[in-house]
Amino acid sequence: MIPDYHTHTYFSDGESSHESYLRNAAAIGITEIGFTDHFSILPTKWTTKEEKIPELKNTIRSLKDTNSLPIEVKFGAEIDYIPGKEKEITRLIQSLPFDYIIGSVHFLGNWNFDTSADGFEGKDIDEIYEHYFSIMSDAIETGLYDIIGHLDLIKKFGYFPEKFPAKPLRNVLKSLQKNDTAIELNTSGLNKPCKEMYPSKEILEACYEYNIPVTLGSDAHNAEEAGQYFDKAIELLKNTGYRKIALFDQRKRRFENLI
């Protein structure tokens, strides 16, 4: 079983249609694909616009109802965690028939560190990492999310701390364990300045030690990126000790053998 649970279409900041994703994913052996366009309660250029949500919902419903599809389709979403906005996020999640929710942290205050590296310059990188993992732990503790996206996204632009924040990360791991929340092994980091998957090999090993469930995501923004580097990802998962992959349907999780 090989799912790709993190993809973006032109409904948010992706470039491709759902149909083109299905064709490309099937051609490389993906067995289940989840479409996770951005939903954000903050005004951003890359979120799904409110007026487009009914069309997105109907598109995925139509695909789910098509018996001839070569792979199974899931309706997911990537929803930013914004401290203090838990009620608004809850209402958003409850408004649509999602199969799973990916929770991500892209903002530290008003700074969207995922799109602008300017905030790193002249700052204490160790403190930035501690702040990031503290917010990530808060996101997990809400219980709103089925999967945590790109767990160490803060490294995207290649800024690494002198001393890794072991205690904040340990709090994240404990929160994942306590709330029975899965992570994804997100392969898109190999295309970024950090040049490694999210999370890193060391953090993935710690997740395994804490018995944290894992799934796979390419974070594709065009159909050609679906399943990117999954051969390396599956090898890393197996070498780490993982033998099961987490799958979702109507917010319920199950496990299948990692092939």
Concise account of the structure shown:
By secondary structure, the protein is of the alpha/beta class. The chain contains 7 helices and 12 strands. Strands 1, 2, 3, 4, 5, 8, 9 and 10 form an 8-stranded parallel sheet that branches.
Would you write up a description of this structure?
31% of the residues lie in helices and 19% in strands. The chain is built from seven helices and twelve strands. The strands form three sheets. Strands 1, 2, 3, 4, 5, 8, 9 and 10 form an eight-stranded parallel beta sheet that branches. A two-stranded antiparallel sheet has the order 6-7. Strands 11-12 form a two-stranded antiparallel ribbon. The chain is globular. The chain starts with a strand and ends with a strand.
Radius of gyration: 17 Å
* DSSP strand content: 15-25%
Question: What class would the helix/strand composition place it in?
Answer: alpha/beta
What's the β-strand tally? 12
Helix share bin: 25-40%
Mean pLDDT: 95
Written as H for each helix and E for each strand, in order along the chain, the element string is EHEEHEHEEEHEHEHEHEE
Separate helix tally: 7
Key words describing this protein structure:
12 strands; two-stranded antiparallel sheet; 259 residues; alpha/beta
Helix/strand layout:
Layout: E1 3-4, H1 18-27, E2 32-35, E3 38-39, H2 53-64, E4 72-80, H3 86-94, E5 100-104, E6 107-108, E7 111-112, H4 125-141, E8 147-148, H5 166-178, E9 182-186, H6 201-209, E10 214-217, H7 230-240, E11 244-249, E12 252-257
Parallel strand pairs: 1-2, 2-4, 3-4, 4-5, 5-8, 8-9, 9-10
Antiparallel strand pairs: 6-7, 11-12
